[in-house]
Every structure is written in structure tokens, then in C-alpha cells.
């Protein structure tokens, strides 16, 4: 156990398990999932903000989705979307809509009425007031939601290995099935590190946005 | 998007029978009012009398239940509200500068939406900031929270002027400022008003302000227009008790002989004190932070004069000491009579004086505040 | 073909796994949360570590157990615990530390001991936040417990993995649906508990 992770072992595992390719697959799925989550999540947040009656039902529904075990959700999507990256990406998005939508909604609602009022008074159309004033002023909160979504997506994308979606989960799966401790360790630590680094980056961006937009 | 001008200049604005109801009460009831092109019309009246409501029906922030508003013969109902508002400058009491935009972006927002190019916007922003006595290089890239109340109010005014609108709507623009600041900005605004020569509808609570700024004054009560006319007419021919009450400046001077300066001064505060050896640039920052328009310069214990923010910002280029630029300030004893103090101040056009007990500053005398306290 | 008996058995295994982990997590979290109250260092270490682990994908956490603890029930419990601790510690700590200082002053003034203050003032005040954390941890545990079947913990995940091998939709659903129902059950029951311990809770 002690001397397991020499450079040679790592390089060997990396080679044998095609980890460069797996990492690219991983990040590819992750980026698509995160982009979709942001686009859909922000849209849902804006939608329920503009139609406040729908806010409670939509958020409650998304809360229920949130409780579904991630693997079970992917499995439910399998018959619809078939094997491959589809179900995994779809599951990511389904999980991530809630944090993004909820934070967008809270952010938009939290903007002081006086700013929207002034925006209209100086001649901004409702659309311009939304895009130039309300959304920018909600950015710190929206970014917080996206950061949560990022962590969710990383988690679910890793599960994709179990349903033939590729990515680093595949290496973990093979490692466990073949009981290759070195492969498990290398892939496990690498996957974790990747997630922690991206989360850290998102944290920095979030903090910057707070400094830029957050204090008034 | 580029919106075409609705009107280049205002010939007249007609409010005809405009009415706004909230529940069972009238906020504005059957109001008829004509605003002439180029004048500054004051709307004044007790709280809740419908001034704000009337003002907001002009730019359609509130839609009237009955009646029409016509500008140069165009019924505002037929105009697109967004286009209408881009032809009017709008200034309110709490300013509402967008906190996520720099001063430059705040002022340049509507020009940007109108599709102006970057250079032109920048040029415009610079001109406007200079116009309201804020050095552009110093303020353009700051955020609103880094400005004092008075500076923010100036930016609010600059933003309203961005599209060079022929009409301004102003709802108690100086209402949230302390008396010293308000007096200062009124003076500046008067200058600006004469330079730009635009039509302005101006809501206020403060009869002093109304008498100083207004070409005509419209007095409102309970949603209805009570009287409208130039200041003299209201003073000499008040339509009723209420008008007489509002414009009655006589009463204010009733007890002035018996009152002493110490009865009406505001307490002195250390925040008004600046050291003579402070450099002017640093002083601007300190004053911004303390939200001061005017400060008193001391050298040790000795009072050497006063400085105002506007003057300091002008001579910013050279690094001078405050002791070089301080102007003399009127000094009174706490036991001087108010009548004497006021007439002294009036003779030199000062609105601010310092009250000293032997060598200690103990109070500040503000001419307007004194008048208000006397009412 | 899945038999009802198999499903029931797997469900029972699943419940045992989830609740065992949850109980152990609570038992570990509470002392840590209290310790964080006394020492800034512990607070910092616990929160930093917990936040970090939170970002690591569950599958990676589960997999890394194998080289160290092998496969079976125990590594599964440890893996789930690593993820379930954070919400409980964090929420309990927030609840404990958000007590009105005046209240603590008063309690000390009338002569309550440290222990009594914890027992009768801090803890009840922390209940609502704590239960919210436990609910979240429960849902998380239920979710990861599906996954740990891959390292031999048993439970509903095992049926799912069987279904994946032959790509049998009915088998897949036989594992997934009870797992979802368990999640809803945890959500509902803990929400009820949460309301019970929240003083003055008004139904919206
Ligand atoms: N949105 C609203 N809903 C209900 N009543 C309103 C609303 N807006 C104004 N009012 C009422 O209409 C009346 C006139 O209000 P308005 O704001 O025009 O008064 P104002 O003269 O501007 O007062 P102030 O000097 O306090 O600003 C008041 O009695 C006010 O309570
Ligand atoms: Mg008003």
C-alpha cells in the first residue's frame, strides 16, 4: 500500500486506462451539462420571477426531483434516452436546474424596487430593465447557484461511467471490477482533484462578483 | 435601438381633467394645469396632496383613470412610453443610481441603449460631469457607493441630462440632503437651469426652494389644484387660507428680535473640521467620506476659513494646502441676535456661518434652516 | 425476472444501510459541532475539510474506499458517512452558534452550568437547523447507498446493477422506484419531524 503511488505507477495507470481521453470525455460531458443547466436554470428562474404564481409549484417540483437518488434518475432516463452520454447529461441538468433557478429567482426578487422603478422612469423598456439592471444585480447569487450546479454535475457525470457514458467514472468502474487498487486510487484522486479545483475556481469568481456587484 | 425624438423643444404641456383613484380615495382629482415651454413650474403642497402622482402621469409611470396629457399637441397616450421617457429627464429624491455600474456607465446607459458609439458616450459623460462640477477623471470610474450624498445627487442630475431632453421631471431632488448641502445644490441648480433653459416640473416640500427656483408655483391640496401663479401673486393674492399659510413668509420674522443665535444654531461637529496643512486632493476624499459640502479649516485652535467641495475639486490639479485656498467665514457670538446675523449673512450672500464661544467653535448657523425653524 | 421477495429484501438492506450510516453520522457530528464551538481551529479544520469533501463526486469517494477497506457493508458506511457528515455538522454548528448572546448571559446569570446551558438553551435552539441538516444528509445517504451496491453493500442498487448487465428495463425499474419512494419517505418524515421541533412553526 505504502509505495503504491510512484510516478511510474501513475503513468502506467494513466496509459492503460486511457485517462487523457477519459478526462476529455469527462470534461466534455460536464461542460455541456453545465451550460445547459445554466441556460435552462436561469430561464426557469426568470420565468417564475415574471409569473410569480408559478414559483411555488415549480420550485416544489424541482425540490422533489432533487431527492431522487442520482443513479436511479439516470436509470429512469435510460429507456427514454438510451445508453451513452444522453441520460447522464439529462440527469445533471435535472438536478442543476433547482439551484440555478432558485438563486436566480431569489436574486431577481431581492433587487430593490427603486432600481427597477428608476430604470423604467429614465426610459428603459421592461426587457432592458431586466437585462441591464435586475439580472446584473442578481449575478452574485446566480453565480452561487451555478457553483452548486457545478458540484452536482461533476458528481453525476462521474456516475456516467456506470451506464456506458464514458468519462472518468469508466476508469473507476473498471478499477473496482478488476480490483486494481492503483487504478482506483489514481482515478479517484484525479476525479476528486478536478472537482475541487473547478469548485475553487468557481468560488473565486463568485467572490469577485460579490465584490463587484454585491455590496450596496 | 435608436428612438426618434418626440419633440425637440416644449411649446406647452396641457394636463386636462386628469384623475387618479386609489381605492375610494382620489390621489389626483380633475386636475387642469398648463405648463409653458421653458418655464420651471413648482408643484408644492402638503404630504399626500398628489404631487408625485401628478408628475408621474406626465411620463406615464402612472396611467391616469381619466383626462388627457398633451405635449406639443401630442396625446401621451398615443406615444410609446419608453420613447416618451427618453425625451424627459427624470430625477428623484433617492437618486437611484445603479450600484453595479460606474458613474460613467450610469450616465451613459440610455445613450448606449440608443446605440451611440463609445467615443461619443464618453465625450458626453465628460461634458455632463463637468457641467455638474464633478471632475470627470476623478469620478467617471467610481461606483456610486464611493460618492457622498451631494455628489450622487449631481450624478443623478447628469444622468437625467444625458439625452439632452427638452423636459425635466424632478421629484424632491434635494429632499434627502441636509440643509447646507441642499442650499448649495439649489444655488448650482439655479445656474444650470439658466444655462440649459429647459422646461422643468419640480416637486418640493420646501417653500424656500419653491420661491427661489420657481417661475410659477402650483399649490396642490388633497389631489386638487388650489392656485397657480408666479411667487408674487401667491404672496400678495393668496386664493385661500392654505395658500396664505404656505407662502406666509411674514410670520417667520416675528420673534426674530428676541431670539439669539444660540437658540437656532446647529451643534458643531468635529467632522466639519479640516487641518490647514491638508492637501486639497486629500481633503476632497475626506469630505466625500464625511458627506460634507462645506468644511471649516483650522490651524491648531485657530479658525482660518471655510472651503467647499466644488471649489476644492476645481483646483485639484495643483497640490495646494487648504490654508492657501480657504475663504473667510462669518463668525458670530452665541449671544448675537438672529436678526443681526441673518442680515449680515444676507448682505454678503453667505448661507453658512460659524458660531464661536471665545475660541471654541460651538455651532453652525444656516440661514435657511433658521428660517424654517422660525415657521 | 425479479421476484417481489428479492425487492423487499433489497429494500430492507437499503434501509438498514441508510439508517445505520445516518445514526453513526449524527453520533460523530454532534461532538464535532460542539467542539467547533469551543475552538476556532477545530471549527476551521472541520468546515474546510467538510466543504472540500462536498465537492468530490460520490463515486470517487465510494471507489477510494476499496483500496483501503475492501468491499462490503463497512466501506459503504464509511463512504456515505464522509458525505453525510457535512450537512449535519454545518447546520448543527450554525444552529448552536446563532443563539442570542443575551440569552446565554442571562442563563449564566441565573446560575445554569455550562452543561445545562448546552442542554436547555443551545441545543433546542439548534434543533430546526439540525433537523434540516439531518434530512438533507438522509436524502444524500439514500442516494449514495444505491451506488455503494457497486462495492458490495447490497441494497436496492444491487437490483439496478443486475438490470444494467442485461439492460433489462423492468429490473432497472424494480430497483429504481423503491429507491425513489424511500427518498420521498425520508423527505416527508423528516420534514414532519423538523416542524415538530421548530417552536412556533406555522403551516404556510
Ligand atoms: N400606489 C398607491 N396605492 C394607493 N394609494 C396611493 C398610491 N400612491 C399614492 N397613493 C395615495 O395617493 C395620495 C397622493 O400621493 P402622492 O404620492 O402623489 O402624494 P405627494 O403629494 O407626492 O406626497 P409626498 O409629499 O408625501 O411625496 C396619497 O394619499 C397616497 O396615499
Ligand atoms: Mg411625493
Automatic annotation (TrEMBL), chain A:
<feature type="transmembrane region" description="Helical">
    <location>
        <begin position="183"/>
        <end position="205"/>
    </location>
</feature>
<keyword id="KW-0812">Transmembrane</keyword>
<dbReference type="InterPro" id="IPR000515">
    <property type="entry name" value="MetI-like"/>
</dbReference>
<protein>
    <submittedName>
        <fullName>Osmoprotectant transport system permease protein</fullName>
    </submittedName>
</protein>
<dbReference type="InterPro" id="IPR035906">
    <property type="entry name" value="MetI-like_sf"/>
</dbReference>
<comment type="similarity">
    <text>Belongs to the binding-protein-dependent transport system permease family.</text>
</comment>
<dbReference type="GO" id="GO:0031460">
    <property type="term" value="P:glycine betaine transport"/>
</dbReference>
<keyword id="KW-0472">Membrane</keyword>
<feature type="transmembrane region" description="Helical">
    <location>
        <begin position="27"/>
        <end position="51"/>
    </location>
</feature>
<dbReference type="GO" id="GO:0005886">
    <property type="term" value="C:plasma membrane"/>
</dbReference>
<dbReference type="GO" id="GO:0055085">
    <property type="term" value="P:transmembrane transport"/>
</dbReference>
<keyword id="KW-0813">Transport</keyword>
<dbReference type="InterPro" id="IPR051204">
    <property type="entry name" value="ABC_transp_perm/SBD"/>
</dbReference>
<keyword id="KW-1133">Transmembrane helix</keyword>
<dbReference type="Pfam" id="PF00528">
    <property type="entry name" value="BPD_transp_1"/>
</dbReference>
UniProtKB/TrEMBL annotation, chain B:
<dbReference type="InterPro" id="IPR003439">
    <property type="entry name" value="ABC_transporter-like_ATP-bd"/>
</dbReference>
<protein>
    <recommendedName>
        <fullName>Molybdate/tungstate import ATP-binding protein WtpC</fullName>
        <ecNumber>7.3.2.6</ecNumber>
    </recommendedName>
</protein>
<keyword id="KW-0813">Transport</keyword>
<dbReference type="GO" id="GO:0005886">
    <property type="term" value="C:plasma membrane"/>
</dbReference>
<dbReference type="InterPro" id="IPR027417">
    <property type="entry name" value="P-loop_NTPase"/>
</dbReference>
<dbReference type="Pfam" id="PF00005">
    <property type="entry name" value="ABC_tran"/>
</dbReference>
<keyword id="KW-0677">Repeat</keyword>
<keyword id="KW-0067">ATP-binding</keyword>
<dbReference type="InterPro" id="IPR005892">
    <property type="entry name" value="Gly-betaine_transp_ATP-bd"/>
</dbReference>
<comment type="subunit">
    <text>The complex is composed of two ATP-binding proteins (WtpC), two transmembrane proteins (WtpB) and a solute-binding protein (WtpA).</text>
</comment>
<comment type="function">
    <text>Part of the ABC transporter complex WtpABC involved in molybdate/tungstate import. Responsible for energy coupling to the transport system.</text>
</comment>
<dbReference type="GO" id="GO:0016887">
    <property type="term" value="F:ATP hydrolysis activity"/>
</dbReference>
<dbReference type="GO" id="GO:1901238">
    <property type="term" value="F:ABC-type tungstate transporter activity"/>
</dbReference>
<dbReference type="GO" id="GO:0031460">
    <property type="term" value="P:glycine betaine transport"/>
</dbReference>
<dbReference type="GO" id="GO:0005524">
    <property type="term" value="F:ATP binding"/>
</dbReference>
From TrEMBL, chain C:
<feature type="domain" description="ABC transmembrane type-1">
    <location>
        <begin position="11"/>
        <end position="190"/>
    </location>
</feature>
<dbReference type="GO" id="GO:0055085">
    <property type="term" value="P:transmembrane transport"/>
</dbReference>
<keyword id="KW-0472">Membrane</keyword>
<dbReference type="InterPro" id="IPR051204">
    <property type="entry name" value="ABC_transp_perm/SBD"/>
</dbReference>
<feature type="transmembrane region" description="Helical">
    <location>
        <begin position="16"/>
        <end position="38"/>
    </location>
</feature>
<comment type="similarity">
    <text>Belongs to the binding-protein-dependent transport system permease family.</text>
</comment>
<dbReference type="Pfam" id="PF00528">
    <property type="entry name" value="BPD_transp_1"/>
</dbReference>
<protein>
    <submittedName>
        <fullName>Osmoprotectant transport system permease protein</fullName>
    </submittedName>
</protein>
<keyword id="KW-1133">Transmembrane helix</keyword>
<keyword id="KW-0813">Transport</keyword>
<dbReference type="InterPro" id="IPR000515">
    <property type="entry name" value="MetI-like"/>
</dbReference>
<feature type="transmembrane region" description="Helical">
    <location>
        <begin position="172"/>
        <end position="193"/>
    </location>
</feature>
<dbReference type="InterPro" id="IPR035906">
    <property type="entry name" value="MetI-like_sf"/>
</dbReference>
<dbReference type="GO" id="GO:0005886">
    <property type="term" value="C:plasma membrane"/>
</dbReference>
<dbReference type="GO" id="GO:0031460">
    <property type="term" value="P:glycine betaine transport"/>
</dbReference>
